């Protein structure tokens, strides 16, 4: 193939090769390839071939003004790392040698061409006629300027070559290019900026400068080199501490789904290591690296700059009324989704402080919804991900924050200490993927006015329906996470030790508590961690020993046999492990309380009394756990009854029989699973009842008061255990009180409501204590 000019002879097809090169060697490799028989037959020209560099300035000068219609063919060179153990990844040793195998200098390129021809590939992108490119550019951007068309052609060529490169190196290296430039060139985004300029009376040029600055702050500038190195450098932060147990059975179908839709991974958030653990699992299965949405607290050097080059998007914690920043962020989200880049963020808004899921935040989820509502993207698939740790070194600091300790800011000193703590073995970490949820289908089914076909009457109704639809979507994600969260050995052991106040238990007594709970887990088909270790000789001892080494459990071995209890001051840490799986036992606990209520009120219809009690107690916990609607909840409660006796699925039997059946199971769960939540609510309710209802409640001051008074009530024996003295639990209890209108300023009506709230919790507490007294496993432990 020759390069003899830009003209074309009649009936012959001319070609313009736009070459993405950085060195003369790369240009020579492409020229030699064009003259070889390796060019695919469908791209071989029967007319003149002209080569030019892939540069917007050159293209604007030499391509835009042509009066012929050549085929434009982008071509590039891909350099590959040396194959090691079947993988071609950059290693730290490469950087120590001052080389970048993915972008070698010209001297190394020359050596590789002569000695290692397997280390480079010629790749080409899908070509197009010049006339087709002009038509697409006008349709998409509407700007006829030569510079705009040159940028358009450059972008299409870069993206096409990137796609061709991924066919060689794998999908996990999918990297966006020229993102900020494309967004600023978008006609729709320019119109939005013009509207902001008019609405806020800001000069159009100033709006564009601020938008460019916001995108420069937001856009992750990914690097394959940095991604490889960062993965290798950060792997010790989790590989030394945990053995990763990932259920990868659904990942193949997810990959297929990803060919059509962007995936939004929404994991539970328990540790700083979550992103590294999930990232490694996805990389092993050849997924492209997610764009991870993160907070500005991790932008410190060197983590911040490196993380940006691996796909982390740092978003301001608050941007108030900054309409330009908000527009840039929303446009960036829409761009990533449109280009089918996968996203990841922790929709709880931060790491859990209690071990169970926190209430979701809706801001970023709303950006995904808006991209679908506005027709920017057909759909996005939400992927619930459960990440559950058997042990976590950072829990102690999280627990301390719940009783007033200040959160230490992230920085180099913090990172060094964190890395040291990660050297200690902490067992397994379980990664489970829930069924992907179609965002469009979820919004439609939830009554979103933009998608359901049922228009709202006015703007206020439209906003409210959109908000509720998004809440339902978040609820389904949370349920998907919980349904795939396994019960771990540490969950079971701490469940046993926290349920006996400050007494110590022998090994046999711990087994007596755990055995009936395991039978229940098996009967319900609840997902499990490596619980089989408890069946091995010495297995339970090893679990208790590990908790003792971590400072959570204390062991006394000076008597006839060792006894185990929660280490003083570590109850919140133990509760963290218990709470990781406590949601699996909530319905059982509610059923117990319902039966006990019906038993204590023989003059009432037992079925009605039991159902009303179950719903009333569920309402107390609606900000702690994710409950389904009424019909599903009643079906779940019938399933709990059916575990006792299948014939009781549709009706509560004689209360005495129901109570006897509960006793036969060998355990009660209400005091083990729910007491700390009710105790925290009691603290809040009593403090409110003692306040003048005419005074405004300052939340910060009030929560500090609850922590102080909670400690007093604990010392008085009015609270069961230290795990209930938690600012996190007090916060959700205060949220419940606000939902009931009890934080409003008023008179006797507010005072009476607060007193009734406290009285309800006192009554529930009595039934919880009754459940504890009936617990057969507790009585075995006492003997």
From TrEMBL:
- Listed GO MF terms: glycerol-3-phosphate O-acyltransferase activity
Q: Does the keyword Magnesium apply?
A: no
What is the membrane topology here?
Peripheral membrane protein
Q: Keywords of this protein's UniProt record, alphabetized?
A: Acyltransferase, Membrane, Transferase
Enzyme class, spelled out:
transferase
Coiled-coil stretches are none
Where mainly found? Answer: membrane
Q: Where in the cell is it found?
A: Endomembrane system
Claim: Transferase is one of the keywords in the record: yes
Which CDD domains does this one have?
A: LPLAT_DHAPAT-like
Q: Which domain of life is it from?
A: Bacteria
For the Phospholipid/glycerol acyltransferase domain, which residue ranges apply?
263-390
Q: What is its EC number?
A: 2.3.1.15
Q: Which InterPro entries match?
A: GPAT/DHAPAT, GPAT/DHAPAT_C, GPAT/DHAPAT_LPLAT, Plipid/glycerol_acylTrfase
Q: Which intervals of the chain are annotated as region Disordered?
A: 441-462
Q: Which family does it belong to?
A: Belongs to the GPAT/DAPAT family.
Q: Which PANTHER family match?
A: DIHYDROXYACETONE PHOSPHATE ACYLTRANSFERASE, GLYCEROL-3-PHOSPHATE ACYLTRANSFERASE
Return the NCBIfam families for the record.
PRK03355.1
- What is the protein name given in its UniProt record? Glycerol-3-phosphate 1-O-acyltransferase
Taxonomic lineage of the native organism: Bacteria, Bacillati, Actinomycetota, Actinomycetes, Mycobacteriales
């Amino acid at each position: 193939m020759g390069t003899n000019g830009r003209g074309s002879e009649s009936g012959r097809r001319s070609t313009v090769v736009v070459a993405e090169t950085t060195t003369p060697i790369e240009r020579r490799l492409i020229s030699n390839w064009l003259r070889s028989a390796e060019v695919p037959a469908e791209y071989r020209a029967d007319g003149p071939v002209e080569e030019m560099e892939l540069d917007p300035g050159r293209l604007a000068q030499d391509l835009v003004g042509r009066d012929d219609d050549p085929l434009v063919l982008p071509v590039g060179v891909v350099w590959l790392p040396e194959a090691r153990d079947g993988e071609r990844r950059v290693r730290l040793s490469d950087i120590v040698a001052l080389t970048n195998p993915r972008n070698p200098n010209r001297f190394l390129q020359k050596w590789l061409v002569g000695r290692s021809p397997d280390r480079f590939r010629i790749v080409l992108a899908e070509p197009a006629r010049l006339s087709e490119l002009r038509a697409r550019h006008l349709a998409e951007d509407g700007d006829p300027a030569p510079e705009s068309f040159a940028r358009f052609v450059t972008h299409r060529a870069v993206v096409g070559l990137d796609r061709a490169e991924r066919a060689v190196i794998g999908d996990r290296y999918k990297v966006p290019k020229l993102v900020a430039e494309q967004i600023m060139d978008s006609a729709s985004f320019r119109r939005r900026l013009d509207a902001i300029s008019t609405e806020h009376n800001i000069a159009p040029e100033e709006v564009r400068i601020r938008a460019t600055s916001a995108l420069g702050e937001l856009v992750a500038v990914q690097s394959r080199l940095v991604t490889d190195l960062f993965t290798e450098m950060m792997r010790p932060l989790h590989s030394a501490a945990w053995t990763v147990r990932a259920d990868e059975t659904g990942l193949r179908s997810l990959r297929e789904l990803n060919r059509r839709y962007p995936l939004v991974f929404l994991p539970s958030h328990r540790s700083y290591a979550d992103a590294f653990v999930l990232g490694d699992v996805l990389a092993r299965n050849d997924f492209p690296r997610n764009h991870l949405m993160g907070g500005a607290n991790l932008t410190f050097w060197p983590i911040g700059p490196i993380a940006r080059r691996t796909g982390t998007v740092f978003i301001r914690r608050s941007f108030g009324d900054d309409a330009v920043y908000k527009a840039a962020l929303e446009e960036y989200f829409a761009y990533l989704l449109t280009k089918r880049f996968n996203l990841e963020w922790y929709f709880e808004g931060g790491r859990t402080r209690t071990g169970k899921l926190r209430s979701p935040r809706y801001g970023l989820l709303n950006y995904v919804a808006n991209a679908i509502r506005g027709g920017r993207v057909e759909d996005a698939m939400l992927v619930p991900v459960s990440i559950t740790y058997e042990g976590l070194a950072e829990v102690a600091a999280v627990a301390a924050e719940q009783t007033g300790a200040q959160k230490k800011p992230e920085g180099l000193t913090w990172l060094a200490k964190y890395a040291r703590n990660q050297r200690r073995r902490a067992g397994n970490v379980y990664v489970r993927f829930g069924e992907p949820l179609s965002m469009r289908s979820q919004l439609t089914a939830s009554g979103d006015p933009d998608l359901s076909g049922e228009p709202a009457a006015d703007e206020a109704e439209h906003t409210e329906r959109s908000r509720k639809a998004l809440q339902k979507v978040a609820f389904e994600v949370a349920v998907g996470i919980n349904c795939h969260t396994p019960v771990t050995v540490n969950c079971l052991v701490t469940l046993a030790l926290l349920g006996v106040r400050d007494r110590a238990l022998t090994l046999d007594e711990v087994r007596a508590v755990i055995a009936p709970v395991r039978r229940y887990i098996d009967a319900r088909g609840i997902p499990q961690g490596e619980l089989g270790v408890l069946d091995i000789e010495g297995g339970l001892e090893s679990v208790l020993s590990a908790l003792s080494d971590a400072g959570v459990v204390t062991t006394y071995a000076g008597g006839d046999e060792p006894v185990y209890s929660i280490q003083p001051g570590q109850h919140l840490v133990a509760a963290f492990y218990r709470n990781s799986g406590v949601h699996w036992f909530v319905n059982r606990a509610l059923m117990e309380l319902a039966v006990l209520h019906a038993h204590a009120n023989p003059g009432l219809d037992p079925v009605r009394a039991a159902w009303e009690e179950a719903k009333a107690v569920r309402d107390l916990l609606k900000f702690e756990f994710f409950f389904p609607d009424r019909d599903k909840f009643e079906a779940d409660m019938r399933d709990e009854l059916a575990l006792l006796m299948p014939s009781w699925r549709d009706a509560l039997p004689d209360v005495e029989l129901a109570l006897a059946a509960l006793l036969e199971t060998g355990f009660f769960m209400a005091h083990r699973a729910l007491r700390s939540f009710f105790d925290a609510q009691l603290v809040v309710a009593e403090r409110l009842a003692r306040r003048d209802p005419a005074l405004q409640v300052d939340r910060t001051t009030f929560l500090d008061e609850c922590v102080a008074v909670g400690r007093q009530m604990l010392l008085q024996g009015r609270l069961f255990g230290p795990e209930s003295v938690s600012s996190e639990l007090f916060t959700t209890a205060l949220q419940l009180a606000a939902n009931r209108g009890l934080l409003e300023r008023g008179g006797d009506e507010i005072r009476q409501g607060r007193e009734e709230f406290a009285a309800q919790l006192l009554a529930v507490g009595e039934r919880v204590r009754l459940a504890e007294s009936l617990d057969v496993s507790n009585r075995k432990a006492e003997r």
